[in-house]
C-alpha cells in the first residue's frame, strides 16, 4: 500500500509522465455557453483553442465539485494507505477548497489537500515529486511535509500575448498595473499565489531572452518546464536556449490546458520549475 | 585693503542690486536663449536662469544683513532651479551665500571670496565639469574679483573686475569648447552670468536696468500655466518663421485678437499662444509675415469636457483599442490603484500631452510636464516625488537638461530617490517598461540602466539658422536629424534625413520602431513615415505610431 497522488487538470502533466508516476487527474470544467466539457478529457487542446479564438461564445471555467473529488478519493482509498491531493492556487480558483470539502466528507480516508499557490507544471512538478516519494514508500505525512517545503521554491514566469483574457476572466489581481497601456507591449507575469505584474517587453524574442535570464538567475533547478499555449515554435526556441540552465532531455515542454487558456489566452510562453534550494 | 574706506554694502542695498540684476536678465532672456548650440528653436538657458533667479528673489523682504538676504535667496534658488543652467546658478548662489556667512556688511574681500565659493559649489554640482561653460565664467569672475580685492580695490572696483572677467571669459568660451566654436556662439549660461553681474554693476553705477531696445520676450511661459478656468473658444498656438517680422506690431495685433496671449520671439521666429473665438483670423493675419509651422488649434470647451470625462486629454493615433471588455475608465482606475500600492514609485518628465498619457499608462505614478521648452523646477520635481505614496522613488528626467534639477530634488526630499539618467524620452519609456515590482530597487535600477542602453533615439526637427554641428553643415530651414542627442544628418526633405538616420542606426539588430508624433503633426504623416520604414526594413516586428505632442520635434523615433 502506497500513497496516491491526485492533482487537477491545470497541472498540465504530459500523459507519459502521468502514467509513469500513476498520478490521478481530476478535471476542471470548461463551459461554452451551456455546453460543458471536462478539461483535457472531452476536448483536445487543438479543438479548444480553435473555439476560443474563432468562436463567438467566450468560455468560462468551473472548479470540480466536491463530489467529483470524493468519487476519485473513494476509488483510490481502497488500494492506498492515504491520498495527497495537490491543486491550483487558492487565490486563482476554488478548486483546492472543493477538494478540501471532499476530504472532509471522507473522515475515514487519510487525505492531505495542498494549495500549491501555483498553476500548470508548477503544481505538476509537486505531483511528480510527491509520486516519486510515494513510490519510494514514504508515508503521507512525510510526503505532505516535503511537498509543502517545495512550494516556496516554485518559480513561474510567463509572457502573455494579450491581457484581454486575463481581464475577461477577472483573474488579473495586482496585474491591474498593466491595464490600459497605450504602447503595444507584451506583459510578463509571475505566478506566486496570485498573478503578479513583471516587466513589459516589445517582442517575443525579447520575452524569450528575459525568460532565459530569469531561469539563469535562479538556477540550478530540480525540475524545469517550458509552458505555452498554441506557441510550440517559441516554446521549442525557449527550450533550446535553456540548455545551459537545465538538461534539454529532462526539460518538460507542456501545453497549457484549456482552463488556463480561457484565462491567459493563446500565445503564452513561460517557464516553471522548482529550484534546487 | 588700503582702499576699503570707500564702500561697504548692507543687506537692503544688496537686495536692490540683486533685483536689478534679475530685471536686467529678464530683458536678455531672448538673447541668451538664442545662444543655442543646436540650430533648433528650443534654447531655454535664458528662460531657465531667469525663472531660477526670479524664484530666488520672490517676496524677499529688505533687511540689514547681507548674510540673511543671501540665506533666503540661496534657499529659494535651490527649490526654484530649472534646467541645468538654473541648477548651476542656484549652486553658485549657494556657494556665494556660504562665502558671505552671517556677515552683515559686504566688502570687497568678502565679495571676492563669495564669488570663489560660488564657483567651487558650481563645479561640484556637475559630475564632469566642462570648461568653456558657465563654470569657467564664474571661476574667472572669482579670480578677477580676488585679484582686484587683493590689490585693495573698492567694492565697486571689485565688481567691475568681476564683470570684466565675466565678459572676457564668455568671449573665450568658443575657444575652449568645440561645439560652441562650430555653432558660432558663446556659451549661453556663461552669458547669463555676465548679464546678471552686469545688471548688478549698472545698479551700483546708477545706470538703470531698463533696456530701451529690449525685445519684449516674456520668456517661454509654459502654455498650460496660463490657462484660466473661464477660458473659452480655441486655444491656438503656432510658430511663425520669416525674415524681418515686425515683432512688436505682430505681438500687439495678436494681443488685440484674443486672451491669454503669449508671444515670444524676434524678427525671424515668433511663437504665439492665444485664446480666440476666431483662430482663422489670427492665422490669416500672421501668414503675411512668414511661414507657419506647428499650428495647433484646440477647442477648449471640448477639451475641458473630455478632461472632466476621462481625467486626461486623449489624442492618440494608430492605437488599437485594448482590453475591450473593460471600460477604459475602469481600467485606468484599476491601474492607478495597483500603481499606488506598488513598492516603488516613479516620477517621469514628459514634454507633451501624449507622452504624459503614455507614461501614466505604463505605471508612472507622477508625470511632470516639461522638457525641451519648459524645464521643471527642482521644487516641482521634489513635490512630485513627495506626492507619491512610496518611500522608494525612481526619477526619469528624460532630458539631459533636467538631470541636475532632478539631482537637486533628490537632495531636498526625505525619501530614497534614485535617478535613472535618461537623456531622451524613448529611454524613459524603455526604463519604465522594464520596471518589475518583483525586484527590489537596486535590481530595478540595474535593469532600467540596461534598458536605456538598448534603445536608440532619433529626433527630427527643422533648423532655424545656419550652423555646423558635430561636423554636419546645416542650412536654415533644412530638416535635421539627431541620433541620441548628436546631430548626424541634415537635408532638404524629411524622408531623406530619416533614411540617413536609419542607416546610421544600423537597423539589422533592431525589431521595433515607435514613431512619436510631435505637436501639430497629423496622423497621416505618421502613417506615411511608418509605411516607408516598413517597406525599407521588412524584418521589423512592429512599427507603431503614438501621439507624443512634443513641441519642435515633428518626429521622435524609438528604435529597439
Short description:
Helix content of chain A is 37%, strand content 27%. Chain A has 277 residues and is of the alpha/beta class. In chain A, helix 5 (121-135) runs antiparallel to helix 6 and helix 8 (204-218) packs across helix 9 (232-241).
Q: Explain this structure to me?
A:
The complex is a heterodimer of chains A (277) and B (560). Chain A is α/β, with parallel strands linked by helices and 277 residues long. Chain A folds into 2 domains: 150 residues, Rossmann fold, CATH 3.40.50; 123 residues, Hypothetical Protein Tm841, Chain: A,domain 3, CATH 3.30.1180. In chain A, strands 10-9-8-13-11-12 form a 6-stranded mixed beta sheet, sandwiched between helices. The radius of gyration of chain A is 18 Å and the shape is globular. With 560 residues, chain B is α/β, with parallel strands linked by helices. In chain B, strand 10 and strand 11 form a beta hairpin. Chains A and B meet through helix 7, strand 10 and helix 8 of A and helix 14, helix 15 and strand 15 of B.
How is the secondary structure organized here?
The complex is a heterodimer of chains A (277) and B (560).
Chain A: E1 2-8, H1 15-20, E2 23-26, E3 29-32, E4 35-38, H2 45-54, E5 60-62, H3 66-77, E6 80-87, H4 95-105, E7 111-115, H5 121-135, H6 140-150, E8 154-159, H7 164-169, E9 186-192, E10 194-201, H8 204-218, E11 221-228, H9 232-241, E12 252-255, H10 258-264, E13 269-275
Helix pairs in contact in A: 3-4, 5-6, 8-9
Chain B: H1 11-26, H2 29-34, H3 45-57, H4 66-80, H5 83-100, H6 108-125, H7 134-150, H8 155-176, H9 178-183, H10 188-204, E1 234-241, H11 247-256, E2 259-265, E3 269-276, H12 279-286, E4 291-299, H13 300-310, H14 328-341, E5 344-350, H15 353-361, E6 366-369, H16 378-387, E7 392-396, H17 403-412, E8 416-419, H18 425-433, H19 441-454, E9 456-462, E10 467-469, E11 472-474, E12 479-483, E13 486-491, H20 494-505, E14 512-517, H21 523-536, E15 542-547, E16 555-559
Parallel strand pairs in B: 5-6, 5-7, 7-8, 14-15
Antiparallel strand pairs in B: 1-3, 1-4, 2-3, 9-12, 9-16, 10-11, 12-13, 14-16
Amino acid at each position: 500500500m502506497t500513497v496516491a497522488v491526485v492533482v487537477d487538470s491545470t497541472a498540465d502533466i504530459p500523459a507519459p509522465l502521468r502514467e509513469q508516476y500513476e498520478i490521478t487527474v481530476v478535471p476542471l470544467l470548461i463551459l461554452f455557453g451551456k455546453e460543458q466539457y471536462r478539461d483535457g478529457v472531452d476536448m483536445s487542446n487543438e479543438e479548444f483553442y480553435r473555439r476560443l479564438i474563432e468562436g463567438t461564445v467566450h468560455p468560462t471555467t468551473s472548479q470540480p465539485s466536491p463530489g467529483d473529488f470524493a468519487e476519485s478519493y473513494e476509488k483510490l482509498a481502497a488500494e492506498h494507505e492515504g491520498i495527497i491531493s495537490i491543486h491550483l492556487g487558492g487565490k486563482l480558483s476554488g478548486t483546492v477548497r472543493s477538494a478540501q470539502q471532499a476530504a472532509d466528507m471522507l473522515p475515514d480516508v487519510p487525505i492531505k489537500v495542498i494549495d500549491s499557490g501555483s498553476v500548470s507544471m508548477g503544481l505538476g512538478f509537486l505531483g511528480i515529486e510527491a509520486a516519486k516519494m510515494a513510490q519510494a514508500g514514504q508515508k503521507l505525512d512525510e510526503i505532505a511535509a516535503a511537498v509543502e517545503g517545495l512550494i516556496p521554491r516554485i518559480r513561474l514566469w510567463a509572457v502573455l500575448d494579450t491581457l484581454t483574457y486575463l481581464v475577461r476572466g477577472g483573474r488579473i489581481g495586482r496585474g491591474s498595473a498593466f491595464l490600459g497601456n497605450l504602447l503595444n507591449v507584451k506583459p510578463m507575469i509571475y505566478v506566486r499565489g496570485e498573478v503578479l505584474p513583471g516587466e513589459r517587453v516589445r517582442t517575443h524574442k525579447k520575452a524569450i531572452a528575459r525568460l532565459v535570464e530569469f531561469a539563469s538567475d535562479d538556477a540550478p533547478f530540480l525540475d524545469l518546464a517550458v509552458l505555452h499555449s498554441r506557441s510550440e515554435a517559441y516554446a521549442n526556441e525557449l527550450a533550446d536556449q535553456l540548455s545551459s540552465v537545465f538538461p534539454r532531455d529532462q526539460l518538460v515542454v507542456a501545453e497549457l490546458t484549456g482552463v488556463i487558456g480561457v484565462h491567459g489566452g493563446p500565445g503564452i510562453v513561460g517557464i516553471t520549475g522548482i529550484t534546487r534550494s | 585693503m588700503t582702499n576699503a574706506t570707500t564702500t561697504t554694502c548692507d543687506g537692503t542695498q544688496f537686495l536692490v542690486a540683486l533685483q536689478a540684476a534679475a530685471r536686467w536678465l529678464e530683458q536678455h532672456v531672448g538673447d541668451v536663449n538664442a545662444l543655442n548650440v543646436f540650430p533648433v528653436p528650443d534654447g531655454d538657458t535664458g528662460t531657465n536662469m531667469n525663472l531660477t533667479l526670479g524664484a530666488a528673489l520672490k517676496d524677499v523682504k529688505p533687511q540689514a544683513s547681507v548674510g540673511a538676504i543671501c540665506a533666503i535667496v540661496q534657499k529659494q534658488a535651490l527649490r526654484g532651479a530649472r534646467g541645468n543652467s538654473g541648477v548651476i546658478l542656484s549652486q553658485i548662489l549657494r556657494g556665494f551665500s556660504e562665502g558671505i556667512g552671517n556677515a552683515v556688511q559686504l566688502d570687497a574681500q568678502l565679495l571676492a571670496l563669495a564669488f570663489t565659493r560660488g564657483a567651487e559649489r558650481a563645479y561640484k554640482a556637475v559630475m564632469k565639469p566642462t570648461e568653456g561653460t558657465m563654470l569657467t565664467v564664474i571661476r574667472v569672475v572669482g579670480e578677477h574679483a580676488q585679484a582686484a580685492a587683493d590689490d585693495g580695490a573698492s567694492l565697486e572696483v571689485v565688481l567691475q573686475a568681476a564683470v570684466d572677467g565675466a565678459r572676457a571669459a564668455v568671449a573665450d568660451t568658443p575657444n575652449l569648447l568645440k561645439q560652441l566654436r562650430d555653432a558660432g556662439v558663446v556659451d549661453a549660461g556663461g552669458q547669463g552670468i555676465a548679464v546678471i553681474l552686469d545688471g548688478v554693476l549698472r545698479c551700483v553705477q546708477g545706470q538703470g536696468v531698463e533696456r530701451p531696445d529690449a525685445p519684449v520676450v516674456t520668456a517661454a511661459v509654459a502654455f498650460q500655466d496660463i490657462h484660466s478656468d473661464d477660458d473659452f473658444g480655441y486655444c491656438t498656438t503656432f510658430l511663425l518663421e520669416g525674415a524681418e517680422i515686425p515683432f512688436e506690431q505682430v505681438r500687439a495685433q495678436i494681443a488685440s485678437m484674443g486672451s491669454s496671449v503669449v508671444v515670444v520671439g524676434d524678427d525671424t521666429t515668433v511663437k504665439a499662444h492665444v485664446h480666440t473665438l476666431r483662430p482663422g483670423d489670427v492665422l490669416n493675419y500672421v501668414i503675411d509675415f512668414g511661414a507657419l509651422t506647428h499650428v495647433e488649434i484646440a477647442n477648449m470647451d471640448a477639451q475641458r469636457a473630455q478632461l472632466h470625462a476621462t481625467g486626461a486629454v486623449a489624442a492618440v493615433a494608430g492605437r488599437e483599442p485594448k482590453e475591450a471588455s473593460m471600460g477604459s475608465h475602469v481600467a485606468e482606475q484599476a491601474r492607478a490603484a495597483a500603481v499606488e500600492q506598488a513598492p516603488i514609485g516613479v516620477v517621469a518628465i514628459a514634454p507633451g500631452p501624449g507622452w504624459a498619457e503614455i507614461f501614466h499608462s505604463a505605471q508612472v505614478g507622477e508625470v511632470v510636464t516639461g522638457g525641451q521648452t519648459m524645464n521643471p523646477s527642482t521644487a516641482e520635481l521634489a513635490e512630485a516625488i513627495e506626492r507619491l505614496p512610496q518611500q522608494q522613488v525612481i526619477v526619469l528626467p528624460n532630458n539631459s537638461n533636467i538631470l541636475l534639477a532632478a539631482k537637486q530634488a533628490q537632495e531636498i526630499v526625505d525619501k530614497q530617490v534614485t535617478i535613472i539618467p535618461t537623456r531622451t524620452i524613448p529611454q524613459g519609456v524603455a526604463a519604465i517598461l522594464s520596471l518589475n515590482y518583483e525586484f527590489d530597487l537596486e535590481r530595478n535600477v540595474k535593469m532600467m540602466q540596461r534598458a536605456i542602453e538598448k534603445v536608440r533615439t532619433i529626433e527630427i526637427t527643422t533648423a532655424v539658422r545656419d550652423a555646423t554641428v558635430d561636423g554636419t553643415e546645416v542650412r536654415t530651414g533644412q530638416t535635421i536629424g539627431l541620433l541620441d542627442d548628436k546631430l548626424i544628418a541634415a537635408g532638404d526633405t524629411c524622408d531623406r534625413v530619416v533614411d540617413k538616420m536609419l542607416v546610421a542606426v544600423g537597423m539589422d539588430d533592431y525589431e521595433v520602431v515607435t514613431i512619436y508624433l510631435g505637436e501639430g503633426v497629423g496622423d497621416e504623416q505618421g502613417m506615411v513615415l511608418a509605411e516607408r520604414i516598413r517597406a525599407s526594413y521588412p524584418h521589423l516586428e512592429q512599427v507603431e505610431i503614438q501621439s507624443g505632442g512634443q513641441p519642435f520635434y515633428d518626429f521622435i523615433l524609438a528604435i529597439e
